[in-house]
Amino acid sequence: MGKRIFWLMMLILVLTISCGEKKESSKGAGAEKEITLRFSWWGGDTRHKATLDVIKLYEEKNPGVKIKAEYSGWDGHFEKISTQITGNTAPDIMQIDYNWLYNFSKNGDGFYDINTLKDDFNLDNYDEQALSYTIINGKLNAIPVGMNGRAFFFNKSLYDKAGVEIPKTFDELLATDKVIKEKVSKDAKSLDITSTDSGALFFIEYYVEQKYGKPILTAENTIGVTKEELADAFKFYKMLVDSGAVVSAKDRAGAGNFPDDQNPLWINGELGAVLTWNTMVGQYENMLKEGDTLVSGDFLTGIGEHKSTFIKVNMAFAINKNTKYPKEAAKFLNFMLSDPEAAKILGTVRGIPLNKSAFAELEKEGQTKGPLAEGLTKALAFAGPKTSPYIEDERTRKLGLEITQKVDYNELTPEQAGERLYIELEKLLKQMTR
């Protein structure tokens, strides 16, 4: 009897240990299924909130997957991503600027090839033409979010107060500027064509394309203009600045180097127009004083006979080539970019989407109209020749800003500025393309 009890107790002990091991094993397996994806992006508060809401929705629908959000403003974001990629600490999913592909993936091997994730990401929602912008050596390095174009946006209320029509040529701009100064404010200006990170570089691009039909940097990564043509563009820019109609880099410095959408003149209703990316229009509209109205205007002409605005993919989403979870990353991206609920939440915080499903949803919601959409439509119709992505490289932007400032402070003549830009671009192109 005693032996039976002994062996019965031993059996219970073995079964208890076994069950415990199974529980621990089961627990371990569950932990392995629970994954965390790091996702980084830049933007303003509206974009941050909408993106966080989509992340929350995805986590609710996909238990076991956590999305760690890493977001910031634009300033310093490129440097941060560069450091992370170089140090192999980059997030699983990254919002990147289009031209960054050529910084980090010159041969197409810098990011995960999304073509290999077709089972988890629906590429049928995109036209081949759209995807072509982010394909390098046959590898789909990123998913383009939308198209972006530089367009003119006007404060219609300011022109109404002055009793003049919104200008369509630069001559009209200069003429109406005098009326605005007389009737509304002597401190008013009619156009801001500079920016905090590139100065007047994109206006110089606008000028040479309209007058000469050539970009500063060609799609083949060569310089497309002469020193003399660049000097001509700087002469025109300086004439506009000296007339008092246009905001200069010197004006910006005097007002505290404000972010592009926070020009005090714009906020006070004393700035007529901006030449900026169509995806920025919401931020500018939000900064207008109460009662003022922003409208998409025509492209200012009178320089030459060519179309001349700059078009690009506004941004893209790439997957880290070293991610442990490529399929899961693709599934999350597919949800964020294609799901109808996600499309409603995101709206146009990243511009008009290229994704067919998201576009259809926003069209139903009436969000594909207004200045944002109108500006893009006009930009697409007035696009100049295709330009090298290196025109947007951080080094090129800084060069443009440096030269613009020297022209504004009379440290360089337009002729010297044209020569300097040409020579320095030659050096930069060698660095960027080698």
Structure, explained:
The strands form 3 sheets. Strands 1, 2, 3, 6, 9, 10 and 11 form a 7-stranded mixed β-sheet that branches. A two-stranded antiparallel ribbon has the order 4-5. Strands 7-8 form a two-stranded parallel sheet. The longest helix is centred in the first third of the chain and has 32 residues. The N and C termini lie far apart (87 Å). β4 and β5 form a beta hairpin. 48% of the residues lie in helices and 13% in strands. With 434 residues, it is of the alpha/beta class. The radius of gyration is 27 Å and the shape is globular. α8 crosses α9. About 4% of the residues have low confidence.
Topology:
Blueprint: H1 2-33, E1 35-42, H2 45-61, E2 65-72, H3 77-86, E3 93-96, H4 101-104, H5 128-132, E4 135-136, E5 139-140, E6 143-155, H6 156-162, H7 170-183, E7 191-192, H8 201-212, H9 227-243, E8 246-247, H10 249-254, H11 264-267, E9 273-277, H12 281-287, E10 294-296, E11 311-319, H13 326-338, H14 340-346, H15 356-364, H16 371-381, H17 394-408, H18 414-433
